[in-house]
Write a structure and sequence with these properties.
single chain; mainly alpha; two-stranded antiparallel ribbon; 4 helices
């Protein structure tokens, strides 16, 4: 019984965190960027060449190139990072500063992935 009480207490703290407009707006902005990434890939998918540079950390040449389907890894990784951070926010909802920092860090990661996707599309189109 004490376990359920603790779970409901954590969920109520999480609800208080999401009721703050800053937290809600940061989350919706991150989700909007992920949707924007997906729409960019869907919109330009037919006009992409058969090989795209994606893995810039690998040595120059053929090892950096992938098929266009691999571009879906970018919004997928953004979504995974966002949900991992939301999972940690579930347990850290009482510590509002740390929860907000987690949300901002995931938004920063998603922004960088969106910027990279736009650069890749500009490079090949």
């Amino acid at each position: 019984m004490a376990i359920f009480k603790q779970i409901f207490l954590q969920l109520s703290e999480l609800g208080n965190f999401w009721q703050k407009t800053t937290s809600r707006h940061l989350f919706l902005l991150a989700l909007g960027l992920i949707i924007f990434q997906s729409l960019l890939i869907i919109f330009y998918f037919d006009s992409l060449p058969p090989q795209l540079p994606l893995f810039y950390s690998l040595p120059w040449g053929q090892s950096q190139l992938v098929s266009p389907q691999y571009l879906y890894l970018l919004p997928l990784s953004s979504l995974i990072i966002l949900f991992i951070d939301v999972f940690f926010i579930l347990f850290l909802a009482k510590q509002k500063l740390l929860s907000t920092i987690l949300l901002i860090s995931s938004l920063f990661y998603i922004f960088l992935v969106t910027y990279s996707l736009i650069n890749i599309l500009n490079l090949v189109l």
